[in-house]
Amino acid sequence: MIVTVCDLNGIKQYSVPRNSKKFLVLLVFIVVSVIAGLTYYIKKLSAEVSLVKEKNSVIEQKLQSKLLLQEQIKLANQKKQKELLEKQEKERQERLVWLKEEATRQEKEAKEKREQEALAKAKEEQKKLLNKKKAEEKQKARLAKLNNDKKQFLLNRQLPKIAKLKLGKRYVWGATGPVNFDCSGFTSYICKKKGIRIPRTAKQQSKYGKLIARNNLKPGDLLFFDTSRRSRGVVNHVGIYIGDSKFIHASSAQKKVVITSLNKVFYSNRFKWARRIDN
Question: Is 234 among the catalytic positions?
């Protein structure tokens, strides 16, 4: 067997002994077997490595998915916890606002209640003062009325007395006393003696003082008549009532101051009305 070898020095050929041929074949077989075995082992090992890598990749993906899920759960829990804290803070703020508003409302109600109580008390005090004032005014009015009634009573009694002192004095038209009188001059003179000023003429006097019905006459009231022949309805005569249906007057017919009965037909038919002169 000839073996050709090529190197830097050129191509050389060597003769191999016959026994070496088997050995060489065996060696080549062994080398090829080793290479084949190594190749198979390497392929198998690569396959196993790929399988392991694939498994590791799956495991890693699962682990990443689990970690991602855990992270999402963690974020969700954090978000939920944050929302819960925000909700609690909002509720706390709302509670504080409500408490503040409630305190303000209670304070306002208390203030309004105090104001109402003060107002009610003031009104009560004012009512008491008003009632007291009304009572005092009523008492004053009652006393004034009593005093006025007393004065009026005295006046009603005194006017006839003063008038009677002039009985028999001459009637002179337009005279106002103290010696001679006409009818209205007589009544104005008598009233003047008690410090009361009334109009001069009978017609004017008939509009002065309080109107009195005939059945309520009292001494001192002025009586008014229409003594004209045709009864024209105009007041032209006046006298002073002295009680017992009698009056005193300056009579133009009798030419003097006289006392006459009001029931006398002439004067009863010509009576118009009466007036009470306040003191």
Answer: no
State the DSSP code for 171: B
Please answer whether residues 234 and 243 qualify as being in contact, where contact means their C-beta atoms are separated by less than 8 angstroms.
no
3 pLDDT higher than 60: no
- What is residue 14's predicted lDDT score, i.e. its pLDDT? 57
211 pLDDT band, cuts 50/70/90, is very high
Q: From the candidates 166, 169, 237, 276, which is the catalytic residue?
A: 237
Q: CA dist 276 to 149, 153, 206, 207, 214, Å?
A: 12, 11, 10, 11, 11
Type of residue found at 27 = L
Domain boundaries of the chain, sorted by first residue: 2-74, 165-276
165-276: what CATH class?
alpha beta
Mark whether 69 is an active-site residue.
no
- Residue 69 corresponds to which tokens in the numbers above? 């899920």
Catalytic residue among 155, 159, 183, 242: 183
Question: Residue 177 CB: number of other CB atoms within 10 A?
Answer: 19
Could you say which of 169, 249, 275, 276 is catalytic? 249
Active site residue 249: yes
CA 274/CA 258 separation, integer angstroms: 19
Rounded Cα distance, 157 and 153, in Å: 6
